[in-house]
């Protein structure tokens, strides 16, 4: 059995700078809390999001039990350089790291200006993890555009409250355009990894999708419709199985089927999906919400000195 998971580490930066905690004491407390959770889960492979400083991830690894391998995407936005990555107890190699929208998908409108957006804000990173001499698992990690909106402000500043409801509506649409285009990019990466390897590749798609399982952007990632876990069609093989990705959300116990609390409302926005090689090997799936997640607001700067992540890890055990 192996353990795979995904966790948004929430703005993992070293102290100081534009995004990190104000003091080393707060930083050390956060590292200790993150490490305690990872050590308790003891994953074989963990997809991570919101790694700011690569050095901060290295600091975290020093607190983890055992030996670890790490990989980080080379793609991020300069004005908020958070990356996706993978931690693994086993050797791994990068097989995909992309951000550009795939043709014929064209650039999209990103704000009120004439500028267009042609790539995802964070990379789509894929690694082959050599679990054993006879088993390789591909972990593909992504972090789609947030639903938390920001608005134009003077240089060096960020505004989280709109001037009016028209602005709120427009920027909500821009974020949705981008999240959808990013989902298409992730799905294209899945297709590329499966092409010619449909019956041999063990693929896990993990990450913060910033929306629920039934959201239109999330469903783009599933591939052909008609077979979901728990449905009658799940037990009937069809032509779509070779390229379909199954969301493990429905296997999470109902009481813990969320990964973030936003303005008092529970949301499942962090996801694990697997392909046909793995879907019937899933033993169980958990969301580690016993950490008592805080209720966040639309202003992420309020949590600059947070001593833990505002997301719950999603963890699955696979019978392999």
Describe what is shown at a glance.
The protein has 320 residues and is an alpha+beta fold.
Walk me through this protein's architecture.
- This protein is of the alpha+beta class.
- It has one domain: 4-Layer Sandwich (Deoxyribonuclease I, Chain A), CATH 3.60.10.
- Helix content is 19%, strand content 30%.
- It has 4 helices and 17 strands.
- It has helices at residues 24-41, 54-61, 165-194, 216-220, and strands spanning 2-12, 45-51, 69-72, 83-88, 92-100, 108-109, 116-117, 119-132, 135-143, 202-208, 246-247, 260-262, 265-267, 270-274, 282-287, 295-296, 314-318.
- The strands form 4 sheets. The protein has a 6-stranded mixed β-sheet, covered by helices on one side.
- It is globular, with a radius of gyration of 19 Å.
Overall geometry? globular
Low-pLDDT segments: none
Number of beta strands: 17
The CATH architecture classification is: 4-Layer Sandwich
Task: Kindly state the percentage of residues in helix.
Answer: 10-25%
Q: Output mean pLDDT.
A: 95
What structural class is derived from the secondary structure elements? alpha+beta
**CATH homologous superfamily descriptor:** Endonuclease/exonuclease/phosphatase
Quaternary structure type: single chain
β content, as a range? Answer: 25-35%
CATH class: Alpha Beta
Euclidean distance between termini CA atoms = 5 Å
Widest sheet: strand ordering: 3-4-2-1-17-15
Q: Predict the CATH topology.
A: Deoxyribonuclease I, Chain A
Instruction: Note the total helix count.
Output: 4
Kindly provide the radius of gyration, computed on alpha-carbon positions and rounded to a whole number of angstroms: 19 Å
Largest sheet: 6 strands, mixed
């Amino acid at each position: 059995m192996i353990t795979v998971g995904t966790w948004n580490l929430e703005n993992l930066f070293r102290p100081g700078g534009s995004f990190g905690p104000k003091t080393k004491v707060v930083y050390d407390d956060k590292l200790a809390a993150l490490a305690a959770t990872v050590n308790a889960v003891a994953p074989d492979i963990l997809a991570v999001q919101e790694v700011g400083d690569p050095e901060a991830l290295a600091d975290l690894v020093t607190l983890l039990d055992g030996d670890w391998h790490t990989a980080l995407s080379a793609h991020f936005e300069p004005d908020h350089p958070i990356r996706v990555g993978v931690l693994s107890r086993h050797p791994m190699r990068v097989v995909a790291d992309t951000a550009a929208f795939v043709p014929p998908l064209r650039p999209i409108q990103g704000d009120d200006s004439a500028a267009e957006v042609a790539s995802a804000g964070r990379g789509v990173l894929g690694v082959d993890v050599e679990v054993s001499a006879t088993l390789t698992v591909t972990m593909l990690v992504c972090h789609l555009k947030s639903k938390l909106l920001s608005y134009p402000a003077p240089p060096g500043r960020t505004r989280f409250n709109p001037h009016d409801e028209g602005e709120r509506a427009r920027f909500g649409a821009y974020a949705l355009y981008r999240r959808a285009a990013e989902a298409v990019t992730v799905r294209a990466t899945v297709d590329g990894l499966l092409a010619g390897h449909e019956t041999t590749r063990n693929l896990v798609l993990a990450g913060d999708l910033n929306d629920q399982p039934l959201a239109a952007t999330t469903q783009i990632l599933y591939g052909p419709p008609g077979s979901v876990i728990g449905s009658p069609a799940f037990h009937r093989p069809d032509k779509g199985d070779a390229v379909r990705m199954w969301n493990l959300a429905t296997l999470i116990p109902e009481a813990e089927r969320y990964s973030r609390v936003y303005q008092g409302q529970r949301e499942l926005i962090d996801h694990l999906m697997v392909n046909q090689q793995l879907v019937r090997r899933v033993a169980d799936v958990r969301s580690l919400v016993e950490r008592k997640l805080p209720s966040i607001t639309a202003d992420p700067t309020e949590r600059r000195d947070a001593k833990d992540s505002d997301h719950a890890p999603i963890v699955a055990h696979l019978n392999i």
